[in-house]
Design goal:
By secondary structure, the chain is mainly alpha-helical. It is 58% helix and 6% strand. The protein has helices spanning 2-55, 67-80, 113-118, 121-136, 139-163, 174-212, 215-231, 235-239, 267-284, 287-292; strands at 58-61, 86-90, 97-101, 107-112.
Length: 344
């Protein structure tokens, strides 16, 4: 059902793009708009991941220069049945992460140094599981196409201002059509883009919790990331707001409302959904296991994660201060084995 909904939204976006072309230039404008849409989508299919990583100054890492971070992604990819994606680090104090790539065979995941410094081992694992869920659902391609079409529709709206008023452009609606192309179409494109993004985030939360096996790890991570994003600006994202929807939490300031124009659902709503998922998983566990283990919502002793460290549950009230990150002051690994990069 979620795939069908996304396909319908993509079809609506394409139809809207062609409609804008028709409003500006009639049937000829619609054909030109279709050709532009095909060209931009073809370009974004092959190059969007490189552009996003470059705009965020991401540096590829491996088991030599970021051993623990790389091992987390490797273990989760195996757990999810995915090929090992390329793994990147972003030198940015804001805790955040994103995934990109046209398919699972050509995917990349990226985490900021702020994420590795502020989150526990288990929370980092949950965040990367969320990003791998996007890769598994092919959301990275979907969101790239939607973002490209939304940007192209806005571009056509700007063209309408300069060329729409001409009597020789075969515009069947005159000034009214130009006005719609300039104002209404970009707004409608943004609404469709936001709707696709919010739908995919809830699905990635659910699947990411399944991959790591602990919904509360992700709930706790979302809480910490949201607080960090509110306090620490992300200058690269502020300069390129069109890529904000790719991050696990919106990196832009003042974009926390769960409304029609937000790129992400409310963090509180996402945490509540994960806590409900944890309750359901606890209820589905065998009776003997439930008796031997503490409840997952408020455990007396956190259960051990796949890397042997205790999970950090997501509190429903004020969270405790962040634990020291598992990599100490240098989240990328021992300095003497790191390759030369922006942190050297």
């Amino acid at each position: 059902m979620n795939t069908l909904r996304t396909a319908m939204l993509l079809a609506a976006m394409t139809a809207l793009f062609m409609g804008v072309g028709y409003l500006i230039g009639g049937s000829g404008g619609m054909i030109i708009a279709l050709l532009i849409a095909a060209g931009t989508n073809l370009f974004s299919y092959w190059n969007a991941d490189k552009m996003v990583l470059s705009m965020n100054h991401a540096v590829e890492v491996d088991e030599k220069n970021a051993p623990e971070y790389y091992a987390i992604v490797q273990a989760l990819a195996k757990q999810a049945g995915l090929p090992m994606p390329k793994t990147y680090l972003i030198d940015n104090p804001q805790p955040n992460a994103f995934a990109t790539g046209r398919n699972p065979e050509n995917a990349a995941v990226a985490a900021s140094t702020g994420l590795l410094e502020r989150l526990s081992h288990e929370e980092v694992a949950a965040v990367m599981a969320h990003e791998l869920a996007h890769v598994q659902h092919r959301d990275t391609l979907t969101m790239t196409i939607v973002a490209t079409l939304a940007g192209a529709i806005s571009m056509l709206g700007n063209f309408a201002f300069f060329f729409g008023g001409s009597r020789e452009n075969n515009n069947p609606f005159g000034f009214v059509g130009v006005l719609v192309a300039m104002l209404v179409a970009p707004l409608a494109a943004m609404i469709v883009q936001m709707a696709v993004s919010r739908t995919r985030e809830y699905e990635a939360d659910r699947r990411g919790a399944e991959i790591c096996g602990h919904p509360l790890w992700l709930a706790s991570a979302l809480n910490k990331i949201a607080r960090g994003a509110e306090q620490i600006p992300n200058e690269d994202a502020e300069r390129n707001p069109a890529m904000a929807h790719l991050f696990i939490i919106n990196p832009l300031h003042g974009e926390r409302m769960d409304n029609l124009f937000s790129t992400h659902p409310s963090t509180e709503n996402r945490i509540a959904a994960l806590q409900e998922m944890a309750r359901a998983m606890a209820g589905a566990a065998p009776a003997s296991r439930r008796a031997a283990s503490p409840p997952p919502i408020q455990p007396e002793e956190p259960s051990a994660g796949p890397w042997g460290k205790p999970a950090d549950p997501a509190p429903e009230t004020e969270p405790p201060p962040p634990k020291p990150n598992p990599w100490g002051r240098n989240p990328t690994g021992p300095r003497n084995v790191r390759s030369k990069g922006p942190w050297s």
